[in-house]
């Protein structure tokens, strides 16, 4: 990789307070503008890995660099600035149901306002216009004044994408963004994410259970198992057999391609 990574994991491990291993010695470099899909069985550590990037989870050892700077000890203003440049999309959308679509989308902007201004909803004219454009970008321009809970699941997720876009993020993390959606809606949500990635060079990291979708949208696929990085390949090199191996039940010794392309033994 010649481009400087926007995100770098250096020997990152995470143990939860109850002793469960979330991540084990992860080394990973993600360049700006990549569409990275994380796959793996349930409990493999996909959400944990994603949530260490915006410090929703703290790590136990190692280091995580964003734009070349360690984020693991950030506090206060530094942490707020980090989170401002990282948008997050959740499986269950995380909208304020009783608020309008406009208010939900504008809330993506709160990192740029003082607490009292954002609590009073005192957003600038420019940001209100930006919200309209963000909604138009996801095909929901006419829903500005609709209450969030009057939208379908797919529409709610697209509002969440518009909200993330309002942050002017460098990175968008999408944690199983399509798990609650039907197949048709799934494509529109994935296409919205891909557009953000391609038009604005935003780094997008998505956790997916669907192998066909991972193949369709990813620039690169990484696989986790038991908190370990067991697979890391650009999409051109990904084979069905590789993906099958990642998804085989964790009962026996497997050989899976490693980041360097050399086979490594994985004992589950
Ligand atoms: N807050 C927590 N406390 C203790 N253990 C946790 C916590 N969150 C996750 N774990 C454990 O850490 C491991 C990794 O979980 P994680 O949610 O990252 O997996 P995942 O690959 O995202 O799974 P899924 O696809 O089911 O969402 C699992 O064994 C899980 O039970």
From TrEMBL:
SMART domains: AAA. GO terms for molecular function: ATP binding. Gene3D superfamilies: P-loop containing nucleotide triphosphate hydrolases. Keywords: ATP-binding, Cell membrane, Membrane, Nucleotide-binding, Phosphonate transport, Translocase, Transport. The keyword Hydrolase does not apply. Pfam families: ABC_tran (PF00005). Coiled coil: none annotated. InterPro entries: AAA+_ATPase, ABC_transporter-like_ATP-bd, ABC_transporter-like_CS, ABC_transpr_PhnC, MetN_ABC_transporter-like, P-loop_NTPase. The keyword Transport applies. Residues 7-251 form the ABC transporter domain. NCBIfam families: ABC_phnC (TIGR02315). This is Phosphonate ABC transporter ATP-binding protein. It comes from Pediococcus inopinatus.
């Amino acid at each position: 990789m010649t481009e400087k990574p926007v995100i770098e994991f250096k020997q990152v491990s995470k143990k939860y307070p109850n002793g469960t291993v979330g991540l084990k010695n992860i080394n990973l470099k993600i360049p700006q503008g990549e569409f990275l899909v994380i796959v793996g069985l349930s409990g493999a550590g996909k959400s944990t890995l994603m949530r260490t990037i915006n410090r929703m989870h703290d790590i136990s050892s190692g280091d995580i660099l964003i734009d070349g700077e360690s984020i693991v000890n950030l506090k206060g203003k530094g942490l707020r600035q980090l989170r401002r440049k990282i948008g997050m999309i959740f499986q269950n959308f995380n909208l304020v149901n009783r608020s309008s679509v406009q208010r939900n989308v504008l809330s993506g902007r709160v990192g740029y306002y003082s607490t009292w201004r954002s609590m009073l909803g005192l957003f600038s004219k420019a940001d209100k216009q930006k919200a309209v454009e963000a909604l138009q970008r996801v095909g929901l321009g006419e829903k500005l004044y609709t209450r969030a809970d009057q939208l379908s699941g797919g529409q709610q997720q697209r509002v969440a994408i518009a909200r993330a876009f309002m942050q002017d993020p460098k990175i968008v993390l999408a944690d199983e963004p399509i798990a609650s959606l039907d197949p048709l809606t799934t494509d529109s949500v994935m296409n919205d994410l891909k557009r953000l990635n391609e038009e604005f060079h935003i780094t997008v990291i998505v956790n997916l259970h669907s192998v066909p979708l991972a193949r369709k949208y990813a620039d690169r696929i990484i696989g986790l198992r038991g908190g370990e990085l067991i697979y890391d390949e650009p999409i051109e090199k990904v084979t069905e057999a590789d993906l099958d191996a990642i998804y085989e039940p964790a009962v026996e010794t497997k050989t899976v391609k490693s980041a360097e392309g050399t086979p490594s033994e994985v004992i589950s």
